[in-house]
């Protein structure tokens, strides 16, 4: 059963806390992406990775960190430096040779307590 | 700043009508364009992509691209209530695989 999974579905963060969002894919996709979606806004790119052990900042990387130790996994950490973390976080991946064609996971909704 | 612009709507059409969704982009280097459908509270789902000028048809959906006018559109024929969603337009940033997304157009199909 192939696909992109994200967990948890909902996540609550306390002030000053770091939280990590999981993104896993078993599609053998090379490239993976993290986006943030706010109400009434387009998707904004946080980080992306085209190969294992390499990743680049997107348009709004401040307050976030990522790792890409395995092809299948691209976790996103929302650090305490991110002052407005409440949003819908979407992970996407692209097939080999079609790096611009992105498929999305189900998303994680992050709320601040 | 590379931008993709969409009319936020809402666009309301009766069941069975043609829904026309439009998108303009500022980056002349953009090569590929994508339409995603996003139901409320869900993640975007890829429904169409287009690389070449002209029309591309897939079932009830037709994507149209005019690079000279920097214009992309999505036509949905025989609209159904299940088509009610927000439709996101995205284009590649010139020379890269990164996508720039519009804010989306909310479509409502009335039974």
Structural account:
The complex is a heterodimer of chains A (113) and B (111). Chain A is an all-beta fold and 113 residues long. In chain A, 0% of the residues lie in helices and 49% in strands. Chain A contains no helices and 11 strands. Chain A has strands at residues 4-7, 10-13, 19-25, 31-37, 44-51, 54-57, 64-66, 76-78, 87-94, 103-104, 108-112. In chain A, the strands form 2 sheets. In chain A, strands 2, 4, 5, 6, 9, 10 and 11 form a 7-stranded mixed sheet that branches. Chain A has a 4-stranded antiparallel sheet with strand order 1-3-8-7, with no helix packed on it. In chain A, a hairpin with a 6-residue loop joins β4 and β5. The N and C termini of chain A lie far apart (35 Å). Chain B has 111 residues and is mainly β. Chain B contains no helices and 11 strands. Chain B has strands spanning 4-6, 11-14, 19-25, 33-38, 45-50, 54-58, 61-66, 71-76, 85-92, 99-101, 105-110. In chain B, the strands form 2 sheets. In chain B, strands 2, 4, 5, 9, 10 and 11 form a 6-stranded mixed sheet that branches. A 5-stranded antiparallel sheet of chain B has the order 1-3-8-7-6, with no helix packed on it. In chain B, β9 (85-92) and β10 (99-101) form a beta hairpin. Chain B is globular and about 45 Å long.
């Amino acid at each position: 059963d192939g696909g992109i999974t994200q967990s948890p579905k909902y996540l609550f963060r306390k002030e000053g806390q770091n939280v990590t969002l999981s993104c896993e894919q078993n599609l053998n996709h090379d490239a993976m992406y993290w986006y943030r979606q706010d109400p009434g806004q387009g998707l904004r790119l946080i980080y992306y990775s085209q190969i294992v052990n390499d990743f680049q900042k997107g348009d709004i990387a401040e307050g976030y960190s990522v790792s890409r130790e395995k092809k299948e996994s691209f976790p996103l950490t929302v650090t305490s430096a991110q002052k407005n973390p409440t949003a819908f976080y979407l992970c996407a991946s692209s097939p080999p040779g079609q790096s611009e064609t992105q498929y999305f996971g189900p998303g994680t909704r992050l709320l601040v307590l | 700043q590379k931008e993709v612009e969409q009319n936020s709507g809402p666009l309301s059409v009766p069941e069975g009508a043609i829904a026309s969704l439009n998108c303009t982009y500022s980056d002349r280097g953009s090569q590929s364009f994508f339409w995603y459908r996003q139901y409320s509270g869900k993640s975007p789902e890829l429904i169409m992509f287009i690389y070449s000028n002209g029309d591309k048809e897939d079932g009830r959906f037709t994507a149209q691209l005019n690079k000279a006018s920097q214009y992309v559109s999505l036509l949905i024929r025989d609209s159904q209530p299940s088509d009610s969603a927000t439709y996101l337009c995205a284009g590649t940033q010139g020379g890269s695989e990164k996508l720039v997304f519009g804010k989306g157009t909310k479509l409502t199909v009335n039974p």
